[in-house]
Amino acid sequence: MPHFAASEPVVRLREVRVDVEGHRALDSVSLDVRAGRLTAVVGANGSGKSTLVSVLAGLRSPTSGTATLRPGTAVALVPQHTADSARLPLSVSDLVAMGRWRERGAFRPLRRIDRTIVADAIDAVGLSAYAARPLGALSGGQRQRAFLAQALAQRADLLLLDEPTAGLDDVSRRAAASALRLATGRGAAVVVVTHDLGELGDVDQVVALAEGRIVPATTESDTRGRRGVNVSSVEG
């Protein structure tokens, strides 16, 4: 369960540089990600979005600069999923229940509170009617929503999503956007990589990347769907 005060920095980057096989993936990136806020990361392919997410998740260390995650922060990561996920021999409920493993331990029986959290997460993404259905029987958009529900069930402090609405139909996109706002309402810091801000509704902060650097978000695709947000800035 998110336990940081609203607007408190959950992760802070300062002058972060990341070199990958001789290529500078991130350069001089400084950023605060705060509790209870939805941050959108936009930019062209190869601009450094996925590298930024991996640094925020603690999966990659900066070549230089600092990435500071508040002690005790629980992180949930929702990567892009392929059609291979349809082969998992799991129902929607089984998959989402795995989101409680960090709290309960793998394969341990769920408590009543865990079952409630799982049911709430499934409902949040609009899949209650499909809870018992195998993943292979779902559409791609429904499977993506199921993985989002698994992340929600973790009740993490920091929720990171790599293009969670890519390829989704309108119903799935609206459900995903609503679920993300539910997470921020509970105090989580949410970071979403996206190509289209309009799919997320209102966001609190936009980080636009180009060639590994934060740049002003000025294009129509960068600004569509944004109302009064903090654009590509560091809140210190």
UniProtKB/TrEMBL annotation:
It comes from the Bacteria. Belongs to the ABC transporter superfamily. This is Mn/Zn ABC transporter ATP-binding protein. One of its GO terms (molecular function) is ATP hydrolysis activity. It holds the Pfam family ABC_tran. Keywords: ATP-binding, Nucleotide-binding, Transport. PANTHER family: IRON TRANSPORT SYSTEM ATP-BINDING PROTEIN HI_0361-RELATED, METAL TRANSPORT SYSTEM ATP-BINDING PROTEIN TM_0124-RELATED. Residues 11-236 form the ABC transporter domain.
